[in-house]
Amino acid sequence: MDIHKTVSNKLIKKIKCAFFIIILIIGGVYICTTFFLLKQFYSQTTQQLNANVATHLVDEKFREDSPFLENGEVNKNLFDDLMHDMMAVNRAIEVYLLNKKGEIVYSVVLEHPENDKNIKSVDLKPIKEFISNNKSYILGDDPRNKENKKIFSAASFEKNGYSGYIYIVLASQKYEQVCEKLFTKFFFDLGVRSTLITMLFAVIVGWISIWFLTGNLRSIIYYVNKFKEGDLSSRIPNAANSDLSILALTYNSMAETISLNIQHINEVNQFRKDFIADVAHDLRTPLTAIKGYVETLKRKENITVKDRFLFMSIIEKSASHLGNMINELFEHTKFEAKKIEVKKEFFNISNLVLDLQKRYNLISASEEIELLVVKEQAVKPVYADVLLIERAIQNIIENAIKFTPKRGKITIKLLDENKENVTLKIIDTGKGICISNQEHILESYTQFNIDNRNKGIGLGLSIVKKILELHQTELKISSDIDKGTCFEFSLPCRKK
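RESULT FIELD:
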């Protein structure tokens, strides 16, 4: 199974599910909001249409009759007639007679269920507010249940020394029960139908929308798969104009980096193969010489002292050359692995250079090369790792001896030109290095086809470069063909 295709399908499925759920949630919220607003609209409409019912009742019924008898009792006959009249017209209303304090004196209610939570009084604040402005939507107390609020109509009266309020609830409990059943049925029917229609609509619109919205994503997945399958040139076209431009540009940049890294790794691997073959050949030369002369010494019984000494010298020189190559490999490996610890201190570079001159005088004399040191009277101490700098100077001197012909000259100059640095130059009178080769001479494993007496493996100057990089300085090379080469670097005279 293609894991990329599986991931892509999972993502698209998740997007579809999320889209579908969002549609359902929005649909549910819309239906609930619609029912709430519809119910509120109906209540407002009912209250506005019946706002003057209480006023008409007072004007019509209390014009000739009083709601109270002369003895102060309620005129029940009046309210019985009122019940017949109003219930015949609208069975959803309830009429309450209130005194000035809002206490219920009498009520005209069609039904009195056993679980009625009758209260003795109602809040007069919404009643007074309604009387002062009966065009506003106001809810008042439900005399049958203190926890509910109802739409109402109200009017004040004053008759035969009695005053109070007529309070008419426009939505009785029976009315609300019927409405609740109808609303529930209507809500259920509409909800089921809306859900089915919404699901169908979400599937169609969602599939089209997701197919359109994920076009760029599918394009990215296509080119990523091509790259995974080995097409290192696979790049997303017009990445900057993509809907997922950041992802597309990041992929293109990443793919470019990976391609360059793979190319570099392939080049390094090929180079290492060639290098291993070259090193094996270079190491084989001194080993063959050592083995050959050892076998000669073992087999020949009558060897003169002069020949024996010559053979031993050749063996010693080959072993020394072999050891130098192995040391170069070992040192270069440590630099590549960044296992070198720099221990800087102040030291006299003049003394170091003079010591190295004495050490290499014998080698240079055997090659008929003059090794000179030129320095000013007093050269300031430098701040560096003395062992690493010694190794760098050694490598440059050895390189100069290799490429300087007999009766040539190598000059080491110490220049104390300013207070900040001391400059060291090593100048030889060799054949020089052409400009094209100067760009690569400091690279690892670099050798040029120049006749020399002690061919190495091309790591000496590369090690010098790495040592100087650890000291935040660089090796400068200037050369003229058939005239010689100058290697130059500077070291600080104080801590940085």
